[in-house]
Design a protein that fits this description.
With about 190 residues, the protein is mainly alpha-helical. The protein has a single domain, classed as Luciferase-like domain (TIM Barrel). It is about 50% helix and about 10% strand. The strands form 2 sheets. A 3-stranded parallel beta sheet has the order 1-2-3, covered by helices on one side. Strands 5-4-6 form a 3-stranded parallel beta sheet. Helix 3 links the parallel strand 2 and strand 3. The N and C termini lie far apart (about 50 Å). The mean pLDDT is about 95.
């Protein structure tokens, strides 16, 4: 038990109330909430421009789009491991996922999506990893991105894991993804 842990929904309501009461309030159109569960998504629909769900599936993205409505911004995160050795890619993914499998807001969300406690064992089942991550080559990542966009995402925040020290920027992987996703540099 962490005595400093605040339920995310209650903490967010208090924070939004403070923003509304500020001398120079931040308008709802200037807010995007990190929203996972139904209550938080409803809060995002009512009091923000949209939502930025973290560590979610394409199925969750479709549910979030339905909860937010067609006009809200929906920008989920998708974690990528560009490695054609799937065992190695899964090892890297599990290293990142372990911390989140200890947090009730994430595990509760995954349980709502049909995963079980068994999927959380040993750093996450292969089924859980396949749903939460894009593991493999650039074409696989492209296909996963397309799944999220088809499910209703307006934008996708890609987080690249390499298994290297966290401070190392994944420049090679970013370049590979930029080419696969047909992104061009802005000048």
């Amino acid at each position: 038990f962490n005595p400093n842990y605040a339920r995310p929904y209650s903490a967010m309501v208090e924070y939004l109330d403070a923003l509304d009461a500020a001398a120079d309030p931040v308008p709802a159109s200037g807010r995007v909430l990190a929203a996972l569960g139904p209550k938080m998504l409803k809060l995002a629909a009512d009091r923000a421009w949209g939502a930025h769900p973290y560590l979610v599936t394409a199925e969750h993205t479709a549910q979030a789009r339905a909860a937010l409505g067609p006009d809200a911004l929906l920008a989920p995160e998708l974690t990528v491991v560009l490695d054609t050795d799937l065992d190695q890619a899964r090892t890297v993914a599990r290293g990142m996922l372990a911390m989140y499998l200890q947090l009730p807001n994430y595990t509760d969300n995954l349980l709502r999506l049909g995963f079980t406690e068994r999927d959380f064992a040993d750093g996450g089942s292969d089924r859980l990893l396949a749903a939460l991550f894009a593991l493999g080559d650039a074409a696989t990542v492209r296909a996963r991105v397309d799944e999220y966009l088809a499910a209703g995402a307006d934008h996708l925040a890609l987080q690249v894991l390499t298994g290297e020290r966290p401070s190392a920027l994944p420049l090679t992987q970013w370049r590979t993804l930029a080419e696969a996703l047909e992104l061009t540099p802005r000048g």
